[in-house]
Amino acid sequence: MDCCIVTALGSFASLYALLHFVCFIFADADFTLLWSSLFGHRPESKLKGLVVWITGASSGIGEELAYQLAKCGSRLILSARREDELNRVKRGCLERSNLQDADVLVLPLDLLERTSHEEKTNAAIQFFGHIDVLINNGGRSQRSLCLETSFDVYQALMELNFLGTVSITKQVLPHMTQRGSGSIVSVSSLVGIAGAPLSTGYSASKHALQGFFNSLRTELTEFPNILISTVLPGPVQSQIVQNAFAEELTRPVAAAGNQEYKMTTSRCVRLMLVGIANNVKEMWIAKQPFLLFYYTWQYAPTFAWFLTNLLGRKRVQHFKAGLDADSAYFTKPKTS
Length: 336
Description:
It is a single chain. The protein has 336 residues and is of the alpha/beta class. Helices cover 50% and strands 10% of the residues. It has eleven helices and seven strands. The protein has helices spanning 2-26, 31-39, 43-46, 60-72, 83-96, 117-128, 151-179, 200-219, 265-277, 290-299, 301-320; strands spanning 51-55, 75-79, 104-106, 133-136, 182-187, 226-233, 282-285. Strands 3-2-1-4-5-6-7 form a seven-stranded parallel beta sheet, with helices on both faces. Strand 6, helix 9 (265-277) and strand 7 (282-285) form a beta-alpha-beta unit. Helix 4 (60-72) runs parallel beside helix 5, helix 7 (151-179) packs parallel to helix 8 (200-219) and helix 10 (290-299) crosses helix 11 (301-320). The longest helix has 29 residues, at 151-179. The radius of gyration is 21 Å and the shape is globular. The model has no long low-confidence stretch (mean pLDDT 90).
């Protein structure tokens, strides 16, 4: 009898492990986030009527966030440097939803002009009365080798991606602690937990964000209704490469390359909203094989270093050969 029970338990465990393995092969997010997407709260019900401030809202993930949140019925504060593009996104929000003109505030913002952040925050609060969710999405990436990159690029990346985000967060957080509720969601990256060649400065800025918000979360344990969440997307179809820093501040990236293999922006944003609606503290969002990198770095770091060095060498070779670095893992390098 005992033998039968052990055999049955062993079979069940094997089937359970096999099921998880099959699910992981087709997964595009961590298991907590996927579980929430299947059985958790729906963004349409949890985010309706909330006031959401999005930085970097003029393109890419920020623009898609605006559209999907508008469909959820959230009231929006759209911020970026380009006011004309923000107005375009606002029109798109109104066309795609039942929101009225007064439900969407265009609030131009430069993350580098930190002295203006208090004034901008006060304007947002005065317009809607409060802020329920701050989504820190503004920032720029990098595509250049360390030995060829100006120090000014590193300074700009830290000023924009890290210090600009911290500045806005410090303006909004006291408002949330006073109310006793709110969500601060910050878009980090896969390279926020794992290094990648051609992104030394960008990776450093995202590692800094991870450290800051992980520490901040522990400081706010007496405020259980304040969510501090970080989002770590892998490659996503957006304009992040076109807007990336190269070796010099004024030098543009040569070409964005093919984005077909990347996750669609709409899918990435949908998963983000699911995570916000279900209070997920950290979200890993990526198609395979990139999702495997997260788990490898988390549970098998020695093997992760081996893979990173192997694939990183290939990435650098492709970059030097003039190929798009992001798609280098799926193409063969040029031969002379």
